[in-house]
Amino acid sequence: MKRRNILKSLIAATMLAGSFCLPALAAVEVAGVKFDDSIKVAGSELKLNGAGVRTKVIFKVYAAGLYLTEKKSSVADVLATSGPRRVAITMLREVSSEDFGKAFMDGLNNNTDKNERTRILPQTMKFGEVFAQIPGLKKGDQLTLDWTPGEGTQCYLNGKKIGELMPDVAFYNAVLRIWLGEHPVDSDLKPALLGGK
């Protein structure tokens, strides 16, 4: 009798402990921002590849997460992924659209060669126009960059579409290299997005 009660207690305790662990598996928290472990984009389930914080000098600028159809640990594998992809950014401080646009262009220019910059110039200009339309990004704003095969890159601000679709995957990969290229905007964020600590 006692043995049965002990066994029941152990099972109950295990189930209770398991239920407390579930939320930890469902999301990753970075600088107070929660990134779901999996999301849906264009009807496909994407997994959180990695997440981290973009820091400039000593200031935390934003938290970013990279979602892919399956986890990848190398830049080449991330760029070669054929399915949908998402970069999710949550602002941790206010940034003017001018400053964000400049940082974007600097990151793009530092991680692409002249020929590639020429090839994606029309899409880069369209993307720049998106930021010219908004006064800036506030703390808590969520910026999402989705790649959907057969469609293109779509940008969202707080869930609303901004700007036009940009059809070339080369553009999306150039954007990814802002964080994952040879000269990333933040050397600590790159390994975090690639699933490192």
Automatic annotation (TrEMBL):
> For the Chalcone isomerase domain, which residue ranges apply?
27-195
| GO terms, molecular function | intramolecular lyase activity
Residues spanning the signal sequence: 1-26
Keywords, alphabetical: Lipoprotein, Membrane, Signal, Transmembrane
Family annotation (Gene3D superfamilies): 3.50.70.10
| InterPro entries, alphabetized | Chalcone_isomerase, Chalcone_isomerase_3-sand, Chalcone_isomerase_sf
What Pfam families does this protein's entry cite?
Chalcone_3 (PF16036)
This protein's name? Lipoprotein transmembrane
Which taxonomic lineage is given here? Bacteria, Pseudomonadati, Pseudomonadota, Betaproteobacteria, Burkholderiales
